[in-house]
Fold each of these.
Amino acid sequence: MRKAAALLALSLLAVCCRKKPAPPLDPADALYQSASGDLSFEIPKDWRALENQGGGQRVSFFGPSSGARPYSVSIGVYFYGPGSSFASIDDYARAQELSARESTPLKAFDLKGRPAREMTVSRLTPSLHDVKPPELRVDRYVFIPAGAGFYVLDYSAPKASENDQAPVFERVLQSLTLRPAK
């Protein structure tokens, strides 16, 4: 009887002390698909989206929806082709450097088998409607050549919290699918 009770106690102890499994990945990601079908990626469902606002902008997302500074981070997707404001990735990068306090040089890397380039820029943004003082923001630009043009993916966040939502941007990059426009 003592042996059975001891085994039962050890079994219960083992169950109680066992590490709980890690929670599953957050299922709050949604698949964004452009209307033309040439662009898709995963993004948190609670981020707000604005599409086709002009100037090469395809879609911009703002989030997260909660926390100390809701919607203070953005991820923008732009496309520039023949006849647009920027003839090349280098032209776009030079334009961003003009308003930068600091910037990193363009660096080439491989993005899921595609050539890509990236740079980071920090700049002071002006106050809007005198509601807040100017804010130091950091933008990470990823450039992806596509046909006769190129995509720009821009992750923008306040300097004080620039890494908080960086995993969301990485998720966008890793889930990104680009197809020729229909």
Note: Residues 2-17 form the longest helix (16 residues).
Amino acid sequence: MKDKAVLLNNQAILFDFDGVIVESVDIKTKAFASLFKQYGEEVVKKVIDYHLKNGGVSRYEKFRHYLEKIIFEPVTENRIVELGEKFSEKVVERVVSAPYVKGIKKILEELYLKIPLFIVSGTPQDELQKIVEQRGIGKYFKECLGSPVKKGPHIKQILNSYGYDQNRILFIGDTMTDYKGAGEAGVNFIGRVPEGAENPFPDHIQIFTDFH
């Protein structure tokens, strides 16, 4: 992980949420599996595989894929909303109580009065705000931005709104969706890869295991 002096050379730092601030990726994997378990083990396996290969993508996009490509059911807005509500019921309390990624609280505490910090997440905006507030970490972030807007446009919005230089913005994420969003907006990127996990990023990307 880059030392704090290097971090402070940026005009702002952007964080993904799941897997970067909170160890909540597995919670959401289990929630997707639970939603589709009635369709059998083979479907659940495909659902989990797609979820893990598309980390950071909005759950609603995943629901559409599951309905269209895996269980071959009609895609209606009512069905998507229903799945979203059931998913939220399964994950919100667990994410609120999930452990932090090691060292992140100390990093946030040391940085937030010195440099603007943002969350850019695939979690729905209202749900993200609720989780951040219930965890008591809202004070650290200038803005917390979630879906349905994708990460690239969110980052561009931050650049435009605050007049930041894209070369002095750092996005810290844990998925290829994060990496691609950073690339779309032209900002710098560091990848978080938990110890023992497979590194999904290109060789030139700096990675770290936790914030210690």
Note: Residues 4-23+100-208 form a domain with the Rossmann fold fold (CATH 3.40.50.1000).
